[in-house]
Amino acid sequence: MSGYWERRKVFVTGGTGLLGPWVMDRLVREGASVVALIRDRVPFSNFYLMGLDGLVTSVHGDVTDPALIERSLNEYEIDTIFHLAAQAIVVTANRSPVSTFESNIRGTWCVLEASRHCPWVKRIVVASSDKAYGDHRELPYREETPLRPTNFYDVSKASADLLTQAYHKNFGLPVAIARCGNLYGGGDLNFNRIIPGTIEAALLGKSPVIRSDGRYVRDYFYVLDAVEAYLLTAQSIDRPNGAAGQAFNFSNEEPLAVLELVQRILKRMKREDLKPEILAHASGEIVEQYLSSKKSHETLGWKARYSLDEGLDETIAWYRKFFSGRVGRQ
Asked: How many whole angstroms separate alpha carbon 329 and alpha carbon 261?
């Protein structure tokens, strides 16, 4: 929809994360008035590297503060929300489940409850995850696959997902849910994740570390494809029989084992001389987990534009520039 975002007032939580800055950059370029929720100042986040701090309004605080969220929505007369804030690291969730529940569950109901009291809010997209499905033998996961997770992170995302559905059913809140595969791209500063960690290791001439045995199969979903997915989902909420109240899977549908992914990155970086160090320490994780995006194709007209190799090439280029002149991360 050409011109759709012109002059719309958009609130984005998770402003210094991986996805948030790319969403805001796109919205700003399309003429939206953007308000970002910023918890911590992360100097090397894309929020600052892209200069977004000079282009959007920043609200400093935590997504778990209901008064702050409601004030922000009302004061800036927000009509669209992208709720992206979350504690997104599985290892952290296993170590500190309560803080993860605070961020991912309480944070979600704070946004939904505040939205219910704000008359201007017309569309909300909530970030869920493929992890919300839990472990199923039948693959790929489809939107009708039951949510039955057992791990702490997975439970937190499923809970947020179900809360969102309940607010739509009981209050008619104009919400939709995005369930994405493992998101990657430039700006991910969580170097314990496999893609940025492998790229960093290769740039430093070190062997990349794989926590698992390398056989776990996952989706890897490029951040710019995710931006398009979120914007199309929000736009569809406006339509009769559109996205409101529904969940959508987003994936490039190229599932890959972790070891194969690492080897592909090393090949594209011409560092096949570096042999991965396989720790086989990860336990309790789901062996195979990937999504079908058929519903998103048919309902939203969305389709991934980037192959895995194309997304990896752009991501590698981002980190080469990021680490240029720096030795390791600061």
From this structure: 23
Which residues have CB under 8 Å from 71's CB, separation 6+? Answer: none
Residues 6+ apart with CB under 8 A from 225: 250, 252, 304, 305, 306, 311
Element (H, E) at 90: helix 90-95
pTM confidence score: 0.95
Residue in this structure with the two tokens 């080897």, named with its chain if needed: 263
Of the candidates 183, 166, 170, 174, which has an alpha carbon nearest to the alpha carbon of residue 315? Answer: 183
pLDDT digits (tens, 9 = 90+) for 124-174: 999 999 999 999 999 999 999 999 999 999 999 999 999 999 999 999 999
- Could you tell me which residues come within 8 angstroms of residue 281 by beta carbon, excluding any fewer than 6 positions away? 211, 212
Rounded alpha-carbon distances, angstroms, from residue 234 to 89, 121, 165 = 26, 12, 15
Label the pairing between strands 175-180 and 123-127.
Answer: parallel
Closest by Cα among 19, 12, 45, 28 to 224: 19
On whether residue 59 sits in a domain, the answer given is yes
Residue 210 lies in a domain: no
Residue 216: inside a domain: no
pLDDT digits (tens, 9 = 90+) for 265-284: 999 999 999 999 999 887 66
Q: What is the CATH number of the domain that holds 297?
A: 3.40.50.720
* Catalytic site positions: 153
Q: Where in the sequence is the domain holding 171, given as residue range(s)?
A: 9-181+221-252+289-305
d(CA 99, CA 103): 6
Greatest CA separation for the chain: 59
What is the tally of structural domains in the chain?
Answer: 1
In a domain, 325, yes or no: no
